[in-house]
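Backbone geometry:

***
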Amino acid sequence: MCLAGFTVACSGQAPAGGTLTGHVYGVGGPAPGLPRPWPGTVILAGPGIRRDIRVGASGSYSAMVSPGTYTVTGRSPLYESGAVLCRAAGVATVASGHSTTADVLCQMS
């Protein structure tokens, strides 16, 4: 039996999530300095969550997450032997039913 005001709990439907996608890129370095996809790990930190996502040679990742604001960082064995964190340009805000892109950039000198 469902009571008024409790329709979400009674319907069995959880709030819809969104998708956070992107790449791990090596950027800069010798000319032409174009972004290069790198393998590694992407780390998502947001509302009550810390999630590590393995990234293959394509450098791409995709994850279903709850709506909210996420800090996106990552590591690649091709950048400082994986010892240094790389960062996305800013925080990523994910809305229900939408896709948000956050690329992790490892800046080469």
User: Anything to note?
Assistant: The chain has one domain: 17-108. The chain has one helix and ten strands.
